[in-house]
Amino acid sequence: MDDLHIELIQPGQVDETIELFAHHIYEGNRNHAVTHLAGHREGEADTFLAFAGRSFAGFLTIRWHSDYPGFRDKNIPLIQQLEVFPPFQRRGIALQLMEHAEQLIATRASQAGIVVGLFDAYGPAQCLYARRGYVPDGRGACQARRPLQHGETVTIDHDLIIWMTKDLEPPW
In this structure, is the dihedral angle defined by the CA atoms of residues 69, 70, 74 and 80, taken in order, positive or negative? Predict the structure, then answer.
């Protein structure tokens, strides 16, 4: 996309980004936006914003210290959320957001982590992550953070996931 630009939120931009997220992502719920952007002023998280021209097209958030012990214990930052809004999908925006995130993560860690859902709506994300070199972390399908055991019955929802990692090249 010729008119695509990606910005990293700076600590002084958190308040305006909260308003942007409250309006475009959380349907007017400012508290959800505040929660999403928690830790940005303190350096615990970073978010890239994608704009197509003047339109907010998507975002990607990195949590530098994941709540998931499998990542936290190995100092693997988590790409927590990647979203490109429907009118802007299939234009390479997610790919560019991932590229920016991986370059930033490589300045601080040797691996990036990501999580993806297992039902059909996550198919495009599963393909993107596989093409970018992400592999399962070896725990198998999980319900949130808990690995599932043979014979278990679960509901297929957003908590049915797989944790994935990618080895990164240092930026030097």
Answer: negative
Could you tell me the residue ranges of all domains in the chain? 4-167
**pLDDT category, 1, cuts 50, 70, 90?**
low
109, with CB counted inside 10 A (0-12, 13-18, 19+), is middle
Residue 153 burial by CB count (10 A; 0-12/13-18/19+): exposed, middle or buried?
exposed
Query: What is the structure's pLDDT at 2?
Result: 73
| Digit-coded pLDDT (tens) for 66-87 | 999 989 999 999 999 999 999 9
Alpha-carbon span 66 to 73, nearest angstrom: 9
What's the CATH number of domain 4-167, 3.40.50.1370, 3.20.20.210, 3.40.630.30, 3.90.76.10?
3.40.630.30
The encoded tokens of residue 37 equal: 């952007």
Please, which contacts does 82-85 make with residues 24 or more away whose CB atoms are closer than 8 Å?
A: 82/58, 82/114, 82/125, 83/25, 83/58, 83/59, 84/50, 84/57, 84/58, 85/24, 85/56, 85/57, 85/58
